[in-house]
Every structure is written in C-alpha cells, then in structure tokens.
Amino acid sequence: MTSLFFVKEVSNLQSSIPKVPSSGGAKEASIYKKIFKPYGWLKTLYELAESQIFTKPDKTPIDSVLHTTTGEVFTYLSFIAARSIYENEVNELRYKKR
Fold first, then answer.
1. Side-chain-facing half-sphere of 93: CA atoms under 13 Å
2. 10: which of 41, 80, 89, 92 fits an S-S bond (Cβ 3.0–4.6 Å)?
C-alpha cells in the first residue's frame, strides 16, 4: 500500500514542478518528452535509488526508497528542485555579466 501511495504522490509532485531544460532548448525538451516522460515516477524512483541517499543496510536501494516516508522523499525532491533552479539562475547571471 505504501508503494502505491508513494508512486501516486511522486507523480503529482513531478507534474507540479516546472521542467527547466538545460541549454539544449526545445529540441532537448522534445527528446525528453519522447523518451522519459512516459516513465515519469519510475525515473525518479531509480534516480533516488541510484543516489543511495535513503539506502538502508537491510534493504536494496529501491526498497529503501519505497520504505522511506513520503515527507522525507518530498523534502529531498524539493531541495533538489530548488538547488537546480538556484544553480540555473546563478549561471544565467554569470553569463549575462560576460
């Protein structure tokens, strides 16, 4: 039951966060939509598992993510999103100064 709740909530969160394509622009965004968009939450699940931020010694990385509280996962995802936005804006400011 927890796994299904997590999947639904991650999907809701992802749809509420604007996607900021990197320097590739529209073409890169189109490729993303074609390849990764259909997997939505699964991509996030694997990324969290690969980061091993929630990995517990007695569980696989994927099971660890699935057994992490929704609040912890959303806090981490919010932090990652905020850091990405911050880094993009700082890079834009630095680029404009040139």
1. 6
2. 41
Overall pTM > 0.85: no
Q: At what angle do helices 70-97 and 2-16 cross, to 10 degrees?
A: 20
Quickly state the pLDDT bin for 72 (edges 50, 70, 90). Answer: very high
State the alpha helices, DSSP H only, in the chain: 2-16, 25-35, 40-51, 61-66, 70-97
| Residues whose CB is less than 8 angstroms from the CB of residue 6 and which lie 6 or more positions away in sequence, other chains included | 65, 66, 70, 73
Residue of 40, 53, 36, 41 lying closest to 4 (CA atoms): 41
User: What count of other Cβ atoms lies within 10 Å of the Cβ of residue 63?
Assistant: 15
